[in-house]
Amino acid sequence: MDNKYDAVIVGGGVLGTFHAYHALEMGLKVCLVEKDAYAKGATTQNFGQVVPSGMNTKWQKFGRESLEIYKEIQSRFDVSIRQNGTVYIASNEEEEQLLVELRAINSGNDYGSRMLTKQECLEHYPGLSKDYAVAGLFFPQEVTVEPRTMIHRLQEFLVAQKGLEIIFDFPVIACEQEGEWVSVCNTKNEKVFGKKVIICNGADFKNLYPETFASSDLEVSKLQMMQTKPQGNYQLNGSILTGWSIRRYEAFHECPSFAQIKARESKDSLQKKWGVHILFKQALDGSIILGDSHQYADANRIEDLGYELDMDIDNFMIAEAKRIFDLPTYQIQKRWYGMYSQSKNSDIFQKTIDENIHIVTGIGGKGMTGSAGFAKMNVATIFNTQKINL
Known about the structure:
Layout: E1 4-10, H1 14-25, E2 30-33, E3 49-50, H2 57-76, E4 86-90, H3 93-108, E5 114-117, H4 118-124, E6 135-139, E7 143-144, H5 147-162, E8 165-167, E9 172-178, E10 181-186, E11 191-199, H6 210-214, E12 218-228, E13 239-241, H7 243-246, H8 250-253, H9 258-263, H10 270-274, E14 279-282, E15 288-291, E16 295-298, H11 311-324, E17 332-343, E18 349-353, E19 357-361, H12 367-383
Parallel strand pairs: 1-2, 1-11, 2-8, 4-13, 11-19
Antiparallel strand pairs: 3-7, 4-6, 5-6, 9-10, 10-11, 12-15, 12-16, 12-17, 13-14, 14-15, 18-19
Helix pairs in contact: 1-5, 1-12, 2-12
């Protein structure tokens, strides 16, 4: 019975780990298997912003649920959550109009926000250019996380306090129904068994179900980011999202003026070509994380995105960032890119194999914000809220 579980979760990123969390909350016996020695995929290579305000109405509900889950865990175990809010800074009247409309939508959804005048933006965010800022919209309840820390601390919490079993260095090569159990086999022919198996390993599920993968609509996005050297005594609170974020994030698509404003945009800009929107977030060491860009390829053509950083993109982002914030230093200490899978035609990719094997992937850029809330609903659906007796 030692290697038999109510649920086996494949993939140790944020989506898989929160599926494990909610299965444990239901009282189930859970095993999480991860192919590497530790989680190091998209979950650790992102900005670490939890911003339900940027999501459409459906996913904002999951994001707000995630906020509560993060805060509850943080009250018991330090997983690097900081409630320091999110601000959107408009650079012109069109973007300000979108902020006003978003605030009205969120007021109707009972999700608190506050408009900031230009002067308030300049006072709250030192170094912000007076020539850039027109107005702001602040969401005080939103949080930031340290992505390279959070997932490891969350897993440590689940092992120590919830009884999760994690097996690292367990690359899965087969999942097969064997009677009442699903066997999950790795490259060493080691097996664990689950009543249900939930596969949350990004585009890697192609090795398990190549036909399902080939017929999927998954694509991969490559995002370039960078981190400055520590900024001395300079302090920049929360997540700072700027005009191009206002013109990009899904939440604004629901604003009455959005379509008309987007129609007036230049189609040939470098910002459009590289999918850039400028974000700022201060890390715990005082450095500023800056980015990001978005380049896309079909999941089965991931190599088309290349394996190098495009310095033209980085230089473009730095130049744009300097127009917005006068930071003490723009010296860069780290550069990297993250890769995540997403579904072209739906919010997330889901496929059930033989009733008890559930592929759940392609959450895209919604992972850090939406996974905790979405996984709660999905685990309840998969298990019909009933504990399985071994």
